[in-house]
Design goal:
The chain is of the alpha+beta class. It has a single domain, classed as Jelly Rolls (Sandwich). About 25% of the residues lie in helices and about 30% in strands. The N terminus is likely disordered. The site of fe (ii) ion has 5 residues, from loops.
Length: about 230
């Protein structure tokens, strides 16, 4: 009889993070509010994460509405909040609270990171899978968002890219695309951001890990409880 296959653990490439020069990233992050982390999920970790997310999808809920508290911007997406993720995919929840991850990320952004108090917001799943699906413009309650790419459209332009704006220079818009396995960190409470609508046949699946930071107040908005509860 075949041996049962032990679940492969999901491990970030923290050695890669440790090798990055933090002098450069701290000032870049302070100024630009964004830091790309290519290959944070190496191929075996991405594969294991896909399996975790596959199980989560059975529990995820379809959302189609305008978020009144964020200027009426659209939400057309399928989501799952932190409570269900913690009970269905404990590997994701333990990755979120990994001390080594928190200190490696904190070093790169120059902040002392803390777990989010709100268990709904800690780790959330966002899936864009129908034509035109979008996560409209908003800011997050917590200052730091670590967004991990599980699936991503291959279209070069105008499809599922992250767009963010500098609150001090609203005319300045940046767009970024990330292949599966990549991640980025965003100063998500200060830099308004959205995900461009996706094209027919494309899919974009991310996990967002939200963190607090020492000395930074958390803005309280009902948006997370509306989108993820
Ligand atoms: O999907 C993204 O790149 C952004 C996710 C996001 O803004 C959020 O979950 O608050
Ligand atoms: Fe966000």
């Amino acid at each position: 009889m075949a041996e049962p296959v032990a679940p492969r653990s999901v491990e970030f490439d923290l050695d890669r993070l440790a090798s990055i020069d933090a002098h450069a990233t701290v000032s870049l992050f302070e100024h630009a509010g964004y830091l790309p982390l290519p290959g944070l999920l190496p191929p075996p970790a991405l594969e294991a994460m896909r399996a975790e997310v596959g199980r989560l999808l059975d529990h995820a809920k379809r959302r189609d509405f305008d978020m009144t508290c964020m200027g009426g911007t659209p939400r057309h997406m399928t989501t799952l909040g932190g409570l269900e993720i913690a009970s269905t995919a404990p590997a994701v929840a333990s990755l979120y609270r990994d001390d080594a991850l928190l200190s490696a990320l904190g070093r790169l952004v120059g902040m002392e990171l803390r777990l989010a108090d709100d268990p709904v917001e800690r780790h959330v799943l966002n899936v864009l899978h129908r034509p035109g699906d979008t996560h409209g413009l908003h800011t997050d309650d917590y200052p730091i968002a670590l967004v991990l790419f599980i699936e991503s459209p291959r279209c070069e332009t105008g499809c599922g890219h992250l767009e963010f704006f500098d609150a001090c220079r609203p005319g300045e818009r940046a767009t970024k695309m990330h292949p599966p396995g990549d991640a980025y960190v965003l100063r998500a409470d200060r830099f308004p951001h959205r995900v461009q609508p996706i094209h027919d046949g494309c899919q974009r699946t991310v996990l967002n890990f939200a963190y607090g930071a020492a000395g930074v107040p958390v803005s309280a908005s009902p948006s997370a409880s509306i989108l993820y509860a």
